[in-house]
Write a structure and sequence with these properties.
This protein is an all-alpha fold and about 280 residues long. It has a domain at about 5-195: ABC transporter involved in vitamin B12 uptake, BtuC. Helices cover about 80% and strands about 0% of the residues. The protein has helices at about 5-30, 35-55, 60-80, 85-105, 115-120, 125-145, 150-155, 160-165, 170-190, 195-210, 215-240, 240-270. Helix 1 (about 5-30) packs parallel to helix 6, helix 2 packs across helix 9 (about 170-190) and helix 3 runs antiparallel to helix 4.
Length: about 280
Amino acid sequence: MFTEPYMIRAFTAALALGPACALLGVFVTARRMAFFSETVAHGAILGVALGFWFGIKDPTLPVILFSVFIGFCILWFKQNTPLLTDTIMALLLSGSFSLGLVILSLLEGFRAELHSLLFGDVLSMGNDEVVLAVVISLVVIFSMLGLLTPMSLITLSEDLAKVKGINLRLLNAVFVIILTTTVAVSIRLMGIILVTALLIIPPATARNVCRTLKQQILGSILVGFLSAFGGLWASFQFNTPCGPSVVLFSMILFLCSVATILVRKFFSASFPAKSFQ
């Protein structure tokens, strides 16, 4: 299993992107940006379609560029129109996704790409894509750890961050670039439909069992790692799709964290702490 070149590439990419997405997910969920990542993921299909339209066979670069473009479109509309953020994202998601599907339907020979785009196909990743996944993962981890203090302040209170002299516009732009690039690269692993799960489920799992932000970050990274490894192992063992297998494995870990909460509540109700006066 682990000696086949395609499995080595798949595990390397998954174990690189899983923790990276989980780390970003801590701030995505805390800042209520889950729909943002969903918009970027679905909008990326237009980047794929445009890449094929102009004869670019490898869709990675067009997906990254268009995902970043979508991210900044959201920020621009938010700053320059009276529309609410969720309305802006819904408009961009539906418009870009629909246009991408229309373009792909007009291109002969590319309809088969839709399945791998929608649901992921990590087993077909080439060496260049694996290297890109590892590089993106390292950039995400070191960047977010380096920006941990200002990102934590912005997550807690943007007004407090302003008082501390943090450049909100610049930091938000950096975060958008990191997030959109990671989502774009992870599409090959999870697919457009499922990529947001890798950002949301690990931090949600960690939040159920961890108390501090540091614990949530470490817990989320661990859950992302276990989800990627366990999902690929299950995919190989039971001959199931890779992306959905990773999501289901992460959901199992999430349900285990929910069970932990229920056990805590049961013991707290059954054996209340005695008060000493």
